Amino acid sequence: MSAASTSRKAAWGHKPDFMILARLTGGHEVEMVFGLFKSPAKCAPSFCNVDLVDLGIMMKDSIDMYYKQGFELDMVTFGVHIFGM
User: Which of 18, 22, 27, 48 has the fewest Cβ atoms surrounding its Cβ within 10 A?
Assistant: First the structure.
């Protein structure tokens, strides 16, 4: 688990259902993709909007954490919201 995801869980409790990490040449891990799964039984349209906001917050927090640590990356994160399994 990367430093960004560890601090995010400790501070805010946001936790994705899955993440895809990339390992840089220096040994640091960068979070690239965040994913959330929601079943149709647990997801009304208003809850889906909350999930999308959570996904956006996770992606923003990840990029902010790396900039605060001094990484200057041309980095993009992606969010995947899978609904209706």
Answer: 27
Q: Give per-residue pLDDT as tens, 19-47.
A: 988 887 777 788 888 888 887 776 666 66
Domain boundaries, the chain: 3-83
> Rounded CA gap, 62 and 73, in Å?
12
Pairing of strands 78-83, 29-38: parallel
DSSP, collapsed to helix, strand or coil, labels residue 40 as: helix
pTM comes to 0.69
Q: Quick one: three-class SS letters along 63-81?
A: HHHHHHCCCCCCCCCEEEE
